[in-house]
Write a structure and sequence with these properties.
Elements lengths: L1 H6 L1 H26 L2 E2 L7 E2 L3 H8 L2 H32 L6 H9 L6 H16 L10 H29 L3 H9 L4 H12 L1 H17 L2 H6 L11 H11 L4 H28 L5
Antiparallel strand pairs: 1-2
Amino acid sequence: MQKTLKKYFAFFVLPTLTAFAVAFIIPFVMGVYLSFTEFTTVADAKWVGFSNYIKAFRDNDDFINALWFTVKFTVVSVLLINIISFLIALLLTRKIKGTNIFRTIFFMPNLIGGIVLGYIWQLIINGVLLKFGVDITFDAKYGFWGLVILMNWQMIGYMMIIYIAGIQNLPGDVLEAARIDGASGIQTLFKVTIPLLMPSITICTFLTLTNSFKMFDQNLALTGGAPGKETQMLALDIYNTFYGRIGYEGVGQAKAVIFFILVAVIAGIQLLFTRSKEVEQ
C-alpha cells in the first residue's frame, strides 16, 4: 500500500501544487518584485530599489496612522472576542434547554458577507447616533467602536464553536479529580480548564488576530476611513494608495509587502507564545 501511494504521489499532488503556484506563489513573487519598481502595468515596471518603501513611511503619514489604528483595533477585538466567546461556550456546554438553537443563532452572523455586514451595521449605528445629531463619521471614536462591535458580532459565534469543541473534549477524569480534591469552580477554571484548552485558545487567538489585521470590506462599508482617514485600517490604506493615487502603485505594493511581513511576524510570535503554554492531556 505504501509503495502504491509513493508511486502515484506526484500524480495526485501535481494538480494542487500547480494551482497553488499559479494562484499564490507566482503572484506573491511578482508582487514583491513590483514593490521595488515604479509601474502602471506589469509590462512597464521600472526598477527604483527601496524608494517605494521609503515613501511608504516618509511621505505618507496616513500609513502610520492606519498602522496605529489597526493595532489598537486588533488588541481590543482579540481580547473581547475571545473572552466573550469563551464565556458563551462555557455557558452553552452546560445542560441548558435550547443549547443547539442558541449555538446556531450565535454562529449565523459569521455567514454574512463583510460588505453587507458593514452597511447593515452602518444603518443600525447611524440610527442610534442620529438621535444625538451625529453619525458614525462624526468622530473617529464612533468609527472605532462601531468596527469593534461589528467584528465582535461577526466573529464571536465562530470562536464559540471552536471553544465548545475544545471544552467537550476535555478529559472528564481530570475535572473529576479536581472536584474530589476540593477545587472551587474558579480554581478548576483557571488551573485545569484553561490550561487544557490552550490548543483551542491558540487557534482562536490566531484567527481573530489575523482577521482583525486584514479587515478591509467591513472597514470600507462602515466608515470608508472617515472622518479624514482617521478610521482607515491598513488594508484600506493600501487599497486607497494603489488605486487612488496616480504613480503610487509601487508604493501601494510596498505597503502590501510590509503588511504581509507584519502580520506574519505577529501571528508567528502569537503561535509560539500560546503553543508554549499548551499542556499534554
